[in-house]
Amino acid sequence: xxxxxxxxxxxxxxxxxxxxxxxxxxxxxxxxxxxxxxxxxxxxxxxxxxxxxxxxxxxxxxxxxxxxxxxxxxxxxxxxxxxxxxxxxxxxxxxxxxxxxxxxxxxxxxxxxxxxxxxxxxxxxxxxxxxxxxxxxxxxxxxxxxxxxxxxxxxxxxxxxxxxxxxxxxxxxxxxxxxxxxxxxxxxxxxxxxxxxxxxxxxxxxxxxxxxxxxxxxxxxxxxxxxxxxxxxxxxxxxxxxxxxxxxxxxxxxxxxxxxxxxxxxxxxxxxxxxxxxxxxxxxxxxxxxxxx
Amino acid sequence: xxxxxxxxxxxxxxxxxxxxxxxxxxxxxxxxxxxxxxxxxxxxxxxxxxxxxxxxxxxxxxxxxxxxxxxxxxxxxxxxxxxxxxxxxxxxxxxxxxxxxxxxxxxxxxxxxxxxxxxxxxxxxxxxxxxxxxxxxxxxxxxxxxxxxxxxxxxxxxxxxxxxxxxxxxxxxxxxxxxxxxxxxxxxxxxxxxxxxxxxxxxxxxxxxxxxxxxxxxxxxxxxxxxxxxxxxxxxxxxxxxxxxxxxxxxxxxxxxxxxxxxxxxxxxxxxxxxxxxxxxxxxxxxxxxxxxxxxxxxxxxxxxxxxxxxxxxxxxxxxxxxxxxxxxxxxxxxxxxxxxxxxxxxxxxxxxxxxxxxxxxxxxxxxxxxx
Lengths: 293, 372
Known about the structure:
The complex is a heterodimer.
Chain A: H1 2-29, H2 36-53, H3 57-78, H4 84-104, E1 114-115, H5 128-152, H6 154-164, H7 166-171, H8 176-202, E2 204-205, H9 212-225, H10 230-254, H11 259-279
Helix pairs in contact in A: 1-5, 1-8, 1-9, 1-10, 2-3, 2-4, 2-8, 3-8, 5-6, 5-8, 6-8, 9-10, 9-11, 10-11
Chain B: H1 2-19, E1 29-35, H2 42-61, E2 70-76, H3 81-93, E3 100-102, H4 106-119, E4 123-125, E5 140-142, H5 147-160, E6 165-171, H6 174-189, E7 193-200, H7 208-216, E8 221-224, H8 228-240, H9 243-246, E9 249-252, H10 255-258, E10 270-274, H11 278-292, H12 301-318, H13 323-336, E11 338-340, E12 343-345, E13 358-364, E14 367-371
Parallel strand pairs in B: 1-2, 1-3, 3-4, 4-5, 6-7, 6-8, 8-9, 9-10
Antiparallel strand pairs in B: 10-13, 11-12, 13-14
């Protein structure tokens, strides 16, 4: 049991980082990104390509950060011309274009993906699981501190102003395009780091990991946890991940057929988003208004 | 209030997890299986589930495993590596199964197998045919001949019909890409020529564009592979476009798509598939049709069936669930040969199935008939 819990907690940490990344964009800056999974994809494929080329892990991390940074800037550049809802649609389509390209190119391993990446702390068996969990938790904590510091700074105030009143922000002399670009860069870097860690945990990278359904899983974590509350989205990520992991046990306990698991997971994500949007739109931990400084 | 609610939810979720005792009675012997019961390959997954179900019945009729009735805990992979690994971690660390069977797509079987190898748990691959499966590691075994075996048979068969220039149509996933690439390799090594390869995206409302693309190359024959309803649509549209009337169609793993295709759209269709030969194959087919009132949904139920039978036999031979003993028994059984529904199963030094009985099939009416 403990191995399983360590595994679920490790994945929860990675999702926690992704939820924080989405929260910076969507929660604090009002950037409705439906293509978050593509930034994560830069992370996993950065690690995978480094593996194929025989580069060390750190080079994979660098490649991942560069790719995610470029994609983040591209997303931000699109935002100059598009209003937020159209921007959301554009990000979704770009993520799909990237997934389909990756699936059809031979240098990415195509649909077969790339396998055999080094497992983080593989030498530390049987303590490797705990070591990874420690590293992931540390990465999550560092990300949390970074996000907290960011949203409590002057720049954070500008982000929130941009979310609430972009015209006013512009009138007050804030550089809207600059804010968008910087937020996208930072959140892309977070997603890329999460991707590299994930790739070196699962040791396999493939286009199936870039499906848009995963973006919405992260959305559900942010919405359930509390939009624009960093602590909330981490709680949301942990809760959703444990809830998903619990489904197969519910199946065993109640003697339900195995297809129940897939259906129940979809209901958890879709139903979770819907329920919270309708009944508790601020999430479990609402945004703390006026708590800046 | 919010914090209370939150901690309550957290405590409930964790408590439930900790207390979740697997629904297995102490007097049952359990194995684990991970198959795609949802997602794009759910039909094949259902066929695998049926194969497992029939094997469990059969094993239990013969006295079970180590004196206990066998139960296979089936988990859904959702067609995603992450979900499959989650399921494997559950099976290994919570249900404590001594052996895991899975999955279907190579892209999932490989990371799944690698995880099981790291843990030292015996793994049986019941379906994935990518050449990369060979490299998974020391505790991983295949019940299925890899791509190179099936496509070589198909390449020889197609050339045997005198068709030297062909086009390939295959679905754009790990399986389809593997088949297209391996077929091309074997076909061209034997002197044939692949004029063009078209990969189609699954789940489209129409495949006319792809069909017109392969037609443009003017081949001697169209070689394709397709899953159930997709294959039916492709055959119907090929018929409507007049392609079928001009040039022959050759289906790799024809049982995957034959059942869903109406007779009028598959006149003259030929192809190859795994032969369900011998006493084991015949009785499996009969049991299947009696239990589910229809023919095989795919070619993969039989392998999943054999994976369970093989695992049960190996564990009985080992006399315990000790990993080393089970692995040794699998090794011996693989050398000595085991009669399954898919013919005799022998494993090579890389723990992969060495040979496999393939058959040539042709369509007569709605039915598939093997021929020589």
